[in-house]
Write a structure and sequence with these properties.
21 helices, eleven-stranded mixed sheet, alpha/beta, 787 residues, Rossmann fold
């Protein structure tokens, strides 16, 4: 088998068809259309059925096709995706073999590593693969191992920010708040609460408030002193008295006081876009390993991940091609048929809605009773492996009957009973019928679950170090970075006619005065179809020089005018002296005018354009995100072109299929007639011989007649044999023509070229604001924290 046989555009190489009657692999390849995964899939099979190999194979194929994957790993097997060795040398395998396994085989670790290397090389060759395909996998995607609550891999700052993302949709907000509240309460030991309990209502109300706490420590303070006086129609003290709230706050404080809990606040931020793509736009396989966590912590991680993925999914544009894949191994407990854990709502919503945005969900489980029927009914592909009990088979068949019309239950029951390890029955609603297949050899070395130290090695040097999250990075004014000495002085008296505000919420203890400017800019460009508005917020230093304010030295600010507060600094806070110009109210009118002029002169809407495909970026879209959109557009174009080719060839295929069926019928008919004629000829010849030997006369008229009949029968027998040969030639010719047509179609599909987003020519376009397009909203004195 050559790579050209399975390296097809938009097709996942899963394995080869399998003949259950003979127990032998067939030569026909099983290639799964990637766009079929948009309707989701479920993989069911007992321990030892080969689910892990199938799942890792699916992830490998997605990565080769440029599709990013979020893989949630409760068992610890998916980290094997990091073990890919293009050279297939014993030295690559040596660090990963288990000495206990080597001892069981009466081998030294080095000898066992050499054996494993040879085994993997032979296994890949058996399926037409080699080290070059492993190299292609590694070049196609970035692989990153996340370990929430641990520094074995890259930590995730799951609890470092509880604030909503920008421009959050109302439906997303409700799902996020409900899921986050339930998950946090479960972490605090309150996992068995009713959905409408007062604890759930209080935490949800705090997370819903405009001034929602930034992190878990902030939540503790908000529970003690909520930023509102009523919940529903009841006042706060009636609904949840302060004494009871103190007990809840103490529960969360105990969680914060747990040794090592600071890891949950450090690491990469929970940003699905950044997890699925590198800063350069390269697709990533993000493996989130939770095998080291307890049940409560696992539920917290899974729930927050699914909610973040749902929110990210809804921000994407609609597509019928596969944009990203969620793979979850061992889904037991996260989508149960009766209970309602925090993970269930976002997972069900993803199964119902993600297909419209090109996000495919693949769930793997040992027992079908682990899954809610509502989830099963939304999956278009079922991978069914060896099952443990008759009850499991019955549940699977019940589920299939719910999504498939005209199901032959008896036949499927017999098929399921005949499955062995690594053999699966694939039922795809996009195909005409189910197919049994044996999974291909994985490109990754399947050495089993890894321990903490192995995870550290697999994820790379330094991967365990906590990285600063976006919420804790200090990118402030260079003049007031951490460590800059500030004269200790009280807050200066500012004239009432000078607008004065505090940045950062007003809770810092050291402050420096800056000039804050906010403007709304309207960009229009009819030729590019641009008509958008963007907000600009900056701060500029105020000096005692001849030019007190130079807007060219300004830096971006995160606060909108609505976020500024009039006061709130601590009594012990100190303030840097203000330049004289900052106390002159007349200066602010001039600074407002120069700010508007500077915005008109300096600000530009930066857009990216790919002329080859006639695509232009949206306002605010980064080059990385634009290239990701290019890649998705290329994938959609590729899938559409492949479908057009298939549609164009479909009539020819149908005609040839009919010819083959007619020829097969003709061969069968001619073979039957020839068989009957041979039998009649043999009978006639036998009767003639017996009559001649036993008759009273040597040669009688009847004997001569029978002999003549026998001779004619022999002639007809020869003619029938010739008819069979001609019918067989007709069948062979039709089959050869079909093979030639299939080869022609495959050649045309292979000739299709997809856009390479990394190599596509991307140009930069600048759109200037027009006069009258700048609306200065505010220019004011602002106190900026010194950290």
């Amino acid at each position: 088998m050559a790579a050209a046989d399975y390296e097809k555009l938009g097709a996942f190489y899963l394995g080869n068809e399998y003949d259950l009657a003979t127990g032998a692999r067939r030569p026909e390849l099983v290639l799964y259309d990637s766009k079929d995964l948009v309707t989701h899939a479920v993989c069911v099979g007992m321990t030892g059925s080969g689910k892990t190999g199938l799942g890792i194979g699916l992830i490998e194929e997605a990565a080769i096709d440029g599709v990013p994957v979020l893989a949630i790993d409760p068992k610890g097997d998916l980290a094997n995706l990091l073990l890919t060795f293009p050279e297939l040398s014993p030295g690559d395998f040596a660090p990963w073999v288990d000495p206990a396994d080597a001892a069981r085989h009466n081998l030294t670790p080095d000898a066992f590593a050499a054996q494993q290397a040879e085994r993997w090389k032979d296994g890949l060759a058996e399926w037409g693969q080699d080290g070059s395909r492993i190299a292609r996998l590694r070049a196609a995607a970035d692989f990153r191992l996340y370990t929430p609550g641990s520094r074995a891999g890259v930590p995730l700052a799951l609890l470092n920010s509880l604030r909503p993302p920008a421009n959050e949709h109302d439906d997303d907000a409700r799902t996020r708040i409900t899921t986050t509240a339930s998950s946090l309460l479960a972490l605090a030991g309150l996992g068995d609460l009713a959905p409408h309990s007062r604890e759930q209502a209080l935490v949800a109300a705090i997370l819903s408030d405009a001034g929602a706490p930034a992190d878990l420590p902030g939540l503790v303070g908000a529970i003690q002193k909520p930023p509102f006086d009523t919940i529903g129609v009841l006042d706060l003290e009636t609904f949840y008295p302060a004494k009871d709230r103190q007990e809840l706050a103490l529960r969360f404080n105990s969680v914060l006081a747990t040794p090592g809990f600071e890891v949950w606040l450090a690491g990469d931020p929970l940003d699905i876009g950044s997890m699925l793509y590198t800063p350069e736009g390269k697709p990533r396989v993000a493996i989130v390993s939770i095998a080291h966590l307890g049940d409560t912590e696992r539920m917290l991680v899974v729930s927050l991940l699914l909610s973040a993925l749902l929110e990210w999914t809804r921000r994407q544009g609609g597509t019928s091609s596969l944009r990203a894949m969620l793979y979850m191994d061992e889904v037991f407990g996260y989508l149960p048929p009766v209970a309602n854990p925090p993970s269930k709502a976002p997972l069900l919503t993803l199964l119902k809605q993600a297909r419209a945005f090109g996000v495919g969900v693949v769930l793997s489980t040992q027992n079908p009773v682990d899954l809610d029927y509502k989830g099963l009914s939304n999956t278009g592909t079922w991978f069914l492996g060896k099952l443990q009990t008759e009850r499991d088979k019955a549940r699977v068949l019940d589920g299939l009957e719910g999504v498939t019309a005209g199901l032959d239950r008896k036949s499927l029951d017999a098929t399921l009973s005949a499955l062995k390890s690594r053999v699966f029955l694939m039922h795809n609603v996009h195909e005409s019928g189910p197919v049994a297949f044996e999974t291909r050899w994985t490109l990754s070395y399947l050495r089993g679950p890894m321990g903490r130290e192995e995870l550290k090695r697999a994820s790379g040097t330094g991967a365990g170090a906590a990285r600063p999250s976006a919420a804790t990075t200090n990118g402030g004014d260079p003049a007031i970075r951490r460590g800059t000495p500030v004269p200790a002085s009280p807050r200066p008296v500012v004239p009432a006619t000078v607008p004065e505000y505090f940045l950062g919420g007003g809770s810092a203890t050291q402050w420096r005065g800056v000039l804050y400017g906010a403007a709304r800019i309207h960009y229009t460009e009819a030729r590019l179809g641009i008509d958008t508005t963007q907000d600009l917020h900056v701060t500029a230093p105020i000096t005692d020089g001849p030019v007190p304010v130079d807007w060219d030295t300004s830096e971006p600010a995160t606060e909108r005018p609505e976020d500024l507060v009039a006061d709130g600094s601590a009594e012990s806070a100190t303030f840097a002296p203000l330049p004289v110009a900052a106390l002159d109210a007349r200066k602010y009118a001039a600074w407002t005018k120069t700010f508007g002029q500077w915005v008109l002169r300096a600000e530009r809407l930066m857009l990216y354009s790919a002329p080859a495909v006639k695509l232009t970026s949206h306002a605010g879209e980064s080059e990385r995100d634009f290239r990701l959109r290019l890649a998705q557009a290329a994938r959609e174009s590729r899938d559409a072109d492949v479908q057009k080719l298939r549609d164009r060839y479909a009539p020819k295929v149908a005609r040839l299929t009919q010819r083959i069926q007619t020829a097969e019928t003709g061969v069968a008919r001619e073979q039957d007639q020839a068989s009957q004629q041979r039998t009649q000829t043999m009978v006639s010849i036998g009767a003639t011989v017996i009559g001649a030997l036993l008759g009273r006369k040597a040669v009688s008229a009847s004997t001569l007649g029978r002999a003549t009949t026998a001779v004619r029968g022999a002639g007809r027998s020869v003619k029938e044999s010739q008819d069979v040969a001609r019918a067989q030639d007709t069948l062979t010719a039709a089959q050869e023509e079909m093979k030639a047509l299939e080869a022609e179609l495959a050649e045309e599909i292979a000739a299709l070229t997809a856009l390479d987003p990394a190599g596509a020519a991307v140009e930069t376009i600048e759109v200037k604001p027009k006069r009258g397009g700048v609306d200065v909203r505010l220019v004011a004195l602002a106190w900026k924290p010194i950290e």
